[in-house]
Amino acid sequence: MITLSNEIYLTIIFQLTIIFIVNAFFNTYVRNKQYLFFCIFSVIIYTIAYTQINVLSTGILWLSMTIFSVHYSNYFLRATFLSTMTILIYISSDYLVTYTFGILQIMPSSITRLAISALTYLILALILKRFITNRIIQNRNNLEVITFTSVMTFLIYFIIISVERFVATEHAMEKTNFLFITFYGIASTIIAASVIFIMNKNYKAKNREIELKQLISYSKKIEINYNELRKFKHDYMNILLSLEGFIQDNNLHSLKEYFYSTIKTSNNIFDKNLLNLSQLSNLEILELKGLITGKLMDAMQNKVQITVEIPEQINSFPIPSLDLVRVIGIILDNAIEATVNTNNSFIRFAIIPIKNSQLVIVSNSCTNSTPPLHKIKKNGYSTKGDNRGIGLSNLDDLIAKYPIVSLDTKIENNCFTQKICIKNGGQHA
């Protein structure tokens, strides 16, 4: 059993406070009253455990913090990675400061050393948040690699430090641990970067394959439209020829009846199935046009009224076309699903250039029982059951990647509307 001084108690409390703050900085979903109680409880348990099992209590802290974060995020990989990095960064910053003081032969007070370690920790956390967590973990393959790497780093480090704490001198332990975490960190970073690079190449290859399939699908839709147009033209010419008999007999009454029962009806059918999609010709991004055409034609087959408004030619967007396809695909899939059980179902799609921006608008009919937005955007939510949601939460994640893109969602008068504003500038599709 270890007897702790008041100074060590205060140091433990300060260190844990900084760690819990950074964990909440990474895992925004744990910012709640339960997390505050968890922090207070963890300080008490960790302090008691430290007097009994020394550094082994760090493993308990990591495990409990990871379990808590996973529970509130429902996203195992992300929560595990961020919780692990929260502790690894603190360990790294602490040893970095200690080893630097040793090289410079400086003997600062414990308060000064603790303050500099905390400042270093916060700086490293900010760097990680800005350049890694907001970019790399957006891709699941990348997240799997870095989660495995970070957890293995912590476990190996934890085993080594636990052994050394009982067999080595303090100076030798700090030097050994610093060298270990430095070299292991470099090696794991190189390995992770290599794996991520390979996965990204495979990811891009799959994306190109998806784009090719979408182009093929678009070509088939165009062929269907063309065949329908030829069929309509043939039928319409026959109808016009059939008018000749009424005209020759000067039978105005029968001509009116025939016109309203046959010609006008065929014209309405023609408008609903072809003319409503005519403005898609102004969209010159083939993969996006193919997606929209396919989705809207599927909706038409389900008796959904379609309106398309693209008043000007659109040949590019300032974000990658693949992400735009994913975003609009999610929105249209949700729109089609929402209209299934509605009366007078409709979907209105528009791409409208405005000053320095492009505005993509999708509106669809919905029922009075449509859940509120905060519930719809919950990860995995679907009206068809748990874990079947198409993913408005995924939509938010995709849009969050681009500062030039904003999303406005509202439900009003049984109409669900999503407006995507894309400012001009940046990488073009």
Give a topology summary.
Blueprint: H1 6-26, H2 33-53, H3 56-73, H4 76-104, H5 110-133, H6 140-167, H7 170-249, H8 252-273, H9 286-301, E1 305-309, H10 321-339, E2 346-354, E3 357-365, H11 373-376, H12 392-400, E4 405-412, E5 415-423
Parallel strand pairs: 1-2
Antiparallel strand pairs: 2-3, 3-5, 4-5
General description of the model:
There is one protein chain. This protein has 429 residues and is α+β, with helices and mostly antiparallel strands. The protein has helices at residues 6-26, 33-53, 56-73, 76-104, 110-133, 140-167, 170-249, 252-273, 286-301, 321-339, 373-376, 392-400; strands at residues 305-309, 346-354, 357-365, 405-412, 415-423. The longest helix is centred in the middle third of the chain and has 80 residues, at 170-249. The protein is elongated, with a radius of gyration of 31 Å.
